[in-house]
Write a structure and sequence with these properties.
The complex is a heterodimer.
Chain A lengths: L2 H17 L5 H17 L4 H7 L4 H13 L4 E4 L2 E4 H27 L2 H10 L4 H30 L11 H27 L16 H23 L2
Antiparallel strand pairs in A: 1-2
Helix pairs in contact in A: 1-5, 1-6, 1-9, 2-5, 2-9, 4-5, 6-7
Chain B lengths: L1 E11 L5 E11 L3 E5 L6 H7 L8 E6 L2 E2 L5 H7 E4 L3 H4 L5 H11 L4 H14 L15 H13 L5 E5 L7 H13 L3 E5 L3 H7 L2 E6 L2 E7 H6 L1 H6 L14
Parallel strand pairs in B: 3-8, 3-9, 6-7, 7-8
Antiparallel strand pairs in B: 1-2, 1-4, 4-5, 9-10
Helix pairs in contact in B: 4-5, 4-6, 5-6, 6-7
Classes of the chains: A mainly alpha, B alpha/beta.
Chain lengths: 235, 244
């Protein structure tokens, strides 16, 4: 499926999730069902998606404090007084974060990064941003390789930092790495100029999403939004 | 017809160090020329002038009869395919296909025409199967071939290669030589690898001290022992150009 349709669908879906009032627990159930349907349709292993979703754990950990710290009326669970307001707050963060992260993981797992960048391009994200992101993806391995070689060279000559006052050589190495990356940037720019670069990245791929692709991609988030509207109009 | 004509090219770094002291060079269409010389002779500085990345203090560069000026620099760059020494500098786009398309797209090619050009260039270097791969997933030899495809896609009049055989294993080196020998294009190859120059280029020029110090058929240049020693050029042990 065309990446721009997927990116747009993710964006609309997440907005829908965020707009859902926290008390409408059943609406979150529908959102989760929609997400699961997409995961199943994409034939992604649920375990894989769950493992990737562990990235949200720090946020959930923060949310766990809310029931203890929140004010207002309290309820008693296993003999501990918990704030109602805090419980709803924690639920709100948990449900929305989980759905948002799950949807993002699904997008990233089904779209190659170059495709994703192309999607942003098609959605009129300034090409300077997508070009910078593209360079980052392209050169992160190259720079990681340089870091690795520098570390090997330092270790080979007996550098074995254990204490804070041994940080000096690391700082020097970081400086050298910065200079090298800067020089590489210069050479890359020369290579671009040599092939006619004039300050604007050229349009290379003109393939656009078809109406069918837009329709099928947006069907899911629009269903989510219908759920939200239903919640809002129900007294 | 003359593909490249350089007259009295001079260049100094801002600190006053003279690198080029009047370079004269003429390369005919279809010629394959090796540019030899010791480290620091000014070879790379010289070739960077041919695409207008460095600007000469004085002298002229003309490609296909078009003199390199601020106005013509884009036109000249479209005619000169420059392959940098490190393919990681040359390949900067997320996929091989996008990288090969970058040059022709900058010069206005779009759609099917662009796609065809990309396919043609990748086929010429035997990398048609790798179009959708990321450059960092390729081997060193493959990267070098794709780097050459990125400039072949611009259908240049003259192909300039900076140290094409560096960092290649013997098989990668041989495969690249076969590809270069099979290309129907004017070639200027900067190299320290003298057997490679001998294999691919019928003519060699030696740059030393910022001028062209020798120019002639590769076997003759490589067998002039006195000049070779003077210019810090050495053949591998047992290699005699006239005995092959």
């Amino acid at each position: 499926m065309a990446p721009e349709a997927k990116v747009a669908a993710l964006f609309v879906f997440v907005l829908g999730v965020v707009a859902t009032p926290r008390e409408a627990v059943w609406a979150f159930g529908i959102h989760a069902f929609l997400l699961l349907a997409v995961v199943t349709f994409a034939e992604l292993p649920v375990g894989f998606v769950l493992r990737r979703m562990t990235i949200e754990l720090p946020f959930i950990a923060f949310a766990l404090f809310l029931p203890f710290l929140g004010g207002g009326p309290e309820t008693e669970v296993l003999g501990v007084g918990l704030s109602m307001e805090g419980l709803w707050g924690a639920w709100n963060i948990f449900a929305k974060a989980t759905l948002g992260v799950g949807a993002s993981v699904t997008l990233v797992a089904t779209t190659e990064i170059p495709e994703l960048l192309h999607g942003f391009d098609r959605l009129r994200v300034p090409r300077l941003f997508t070009a910078i992101a593209g360079f980052m993806v392209r050169y992160i391995d190259v720079i990681a390789g340089e870091i690795q070689r520098t570390r090997t060279a330092m270790t080979a000559r007996g550098h074995d930092p254990r204490w804070l006052w041994q940080v000096g050589p690391l700082a020097t190495a970081a400086g050298a790495l910065f200079v090298r990356s800067y020089e590489r940037g210069e050479r890359v720019h020369q290579a671009m100029v040599a092939r006619g670069y004039d300050g604007r990245m050229p349009v290379i791929d003109e393939r656009r999403a078809t109406a069918l692709e837009w329709g099928s991609a947006l069907a899911i988030p629009l269903t989510a939004w219908m759920t939200v509207l239903l919640v809002l109009v129900t007294p | 017809m003359t593909a490249l004509e350089v007259r009295d090219l001079r260049f100094s770094y801002p600190d006053g160090t003279e690198v080029l002291r009047g370079v004269d060079l003429e390369i005919g269409a279809g010629e394959r020329v090796a540019l030899l010389g010791p480290n620091g002779a000014g070879k790379t500085t010289f070739v960077l002038h041919l695409i207008g990345i460095l600007q000469a203090g004085s002298g002229t560069v003309a490609v296909d009869g078009i003199e390199l000026t601020d106005e013509s620099v884009r036109d000249v760059r479209a005619r000169v395919g420059f392959v940098f020494q490190d393919p990681d500098d040359q390949l900067f786009m997320p996929t091989v296909r996008q990288d090969v398309a970058f040059g022709p797209a900058n010069f206005g090619l779009r759609g099917e025409e662009l796609e065809a050009r990309v396919g043609e260039a990748l086929t010429m270097v035997g990398m048609g199967h790798a179009a959708d791969k990321a450059p960092h997933h390729l081997s060193g030899g493959e990267r070098r071939r794709v780097a050459i495809a990125t400039v072949l896609a611009m259908r240049p009049s003259i192909l300039i290669l900076d140290e094409p055989s560096s960092n290649l294993d013997p098989a990668g080196r041989r495969e690249l030589a076969e590809i270069l020998a099979g290309l129907d294009v004017t070639l200027l190859m900067v190299t320290h690898d003298l057997p490679y120059a001998f294999e691919i280029c019928e003519r060699s020029v030696v740059m030393a001290g910022g001028v062209i110090a020798a120019d002639g058929p590769t076997p003759d240049v490589l067998s002039d022992a006195a000049a070779m020693t003077r210019h810090r050029l050495e053949l591998p042990a047992g290699f005699h150009p006239h005995h092959l």
